[in-house]
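Researcher: I'd like a candidate sequence for this fold, 404 residues long. If you have to choose between options at a position, lean toward the conservative one.
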């Protein structure tokens, strides 16, 4: 309960003041008090006290300082870190550092309105069309935290109109990130003839199982059952704070799965295991079940950027050998390739979903239902043949009718 006190100012005049407990700061958890002074009469002090009590009752505890967006982000991030994996919050921190925080600069959260957020979101959509929705989502989480802690009255990012980046089209469909059957076989044959077994096996495994790069880099020999011809996916390589490599559980619950292996894939796995054992024998070491299938130079986890360097080297060798126009895809494109060829081979959508570890079948349908160039050509030829046959039938009917 606040009490009003009379005091003497430095100039000798009498004045009134009060010191009031205003609650617990929701951001720091500390008790807060506020002091108001300088009232000429006791009546003025009582009126100010009543207004403050009503304000606190209606609006909650106001912060003494008007936080900047970056300050509110720092408070939000401290609690966010407790709810997700290190690799997840490390990635989130990078998104904020390089894209979100620079956009808000030193703006104070109470001065950020819908118009400002709309301009920022539009700029993200223009410059980062593949990631802007993620930026908007994360930026909104900080404002939402401000609402929960009663620092803000509304979330301006929730009020914007979601931007829609202008779609671009290419007649040559250069954005198709997958190989056709013929392109894949040519690529793998070239790698097998010109590069080491482990490098060939890496791309072969991705193309023939559809596993993610991180899942491949986390594989131990214990994950491969040669007798049952199965590959167990139970973990993935992840990057934590300051680039620290770690082994995490897979992306989703559905990512934990068993994948059947064909005889060719098993053959190359066995071949690489024998070569790896020979290398370990030279340093008086034995190959254990915990040994990584694709280790780094010092037999530790392989940096996730290395496969990209591998594929770039392969493309350079293809160019040197006269294959300048050979299609280029990313490492993740081998997963797309596997999915596309599964559909082409007649595998059901549900089977593809399970094999690739998609948690939602919509992902299988929306992202990976690309047709290969071979299927597209077959579709066109089928239609053309249909039209030719039909037109011949029509012409015969006309000729037959005209003879009467």
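Model: Candidate sequence:
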């Amino acid at each position: 309960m606040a009490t009003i006190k009379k005091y003497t100012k430095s100039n000798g005049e009498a004045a009134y003041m009060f010191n009031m407990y205003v609650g617990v700061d929701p951001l720091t958890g500390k008790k807060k008090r506020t002091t108001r002074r300088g009232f000429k009469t006791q009546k003025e002090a009582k009126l100010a006290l009543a207004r403050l009590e009503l304000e606190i009752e209606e609006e909650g505890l106001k912060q003494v300082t008007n936080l900047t967006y970056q300050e509110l982000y720092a408070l939000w991030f401290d609690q966010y870190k407790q709810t997700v994996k290190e690799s997840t919050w490390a990635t989130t921190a990078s998104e904020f550092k390089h894209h979100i925080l620079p956009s808000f600069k030193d703006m104070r959260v109470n001065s950020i309105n819908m118009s400002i957020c709309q301009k920022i979101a539009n700029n993200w959509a223009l410059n980062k069309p593949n990631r802007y929705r993620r930026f908007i989502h994360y930026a909104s989480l900080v404002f939402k935290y401000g609402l929960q802690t009663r620092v803000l009255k509304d979330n301006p990012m929730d009020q914007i109109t979601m931007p829609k980046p202008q779609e671009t089209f290419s007649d040559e469909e250069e954005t198709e990130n997958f190989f056709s059957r013929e392109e894949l076989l040519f690529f793998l044959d070239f790698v097998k003839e010109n590069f080491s077994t482990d490098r060939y096996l890496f791309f072969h495994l991705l193309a023939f199982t559809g596993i993610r790069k991180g899942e491949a880099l986390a594989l131990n020999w214990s994950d491969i059952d040669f007798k049952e011809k199965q590959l167990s996916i139970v973990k993935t390589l992840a990057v934590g704070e300051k680039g620290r490599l770690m082994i995490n559980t897979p992306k989703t619950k559905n990512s934990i799965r068993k994948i059947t292996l064909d005889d060719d894939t098993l053959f190359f796995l066995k071949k690489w295991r024998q070569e790896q054992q020979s290398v370990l024998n030279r340093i008086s070491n034995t190959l254990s079940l915990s040994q990584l299938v694709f280790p780094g130079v010092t037999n530790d986890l392989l940096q996730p950027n290395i496969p990209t360097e591998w594929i770039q080297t392969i493309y350079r060798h293809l160019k040197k050998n006269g294959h300048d126009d050979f299609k280029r895809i990313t490492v993740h494109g081998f997963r797309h390739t596997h999915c596309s060829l599964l559909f082409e081979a007649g595998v059901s959508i549900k089977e593809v979903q399970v094999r690739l570890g998609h948690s939602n079948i919509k992902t299988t349908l929306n992202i990976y239902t690309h047709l290969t160039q071979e299927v597209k050509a077959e579709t066109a030829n089928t239609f053309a043949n249909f039209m030719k046959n039909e037109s011949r039938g029509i012409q015969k009917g006309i000729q037959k009718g005209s003879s009467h």
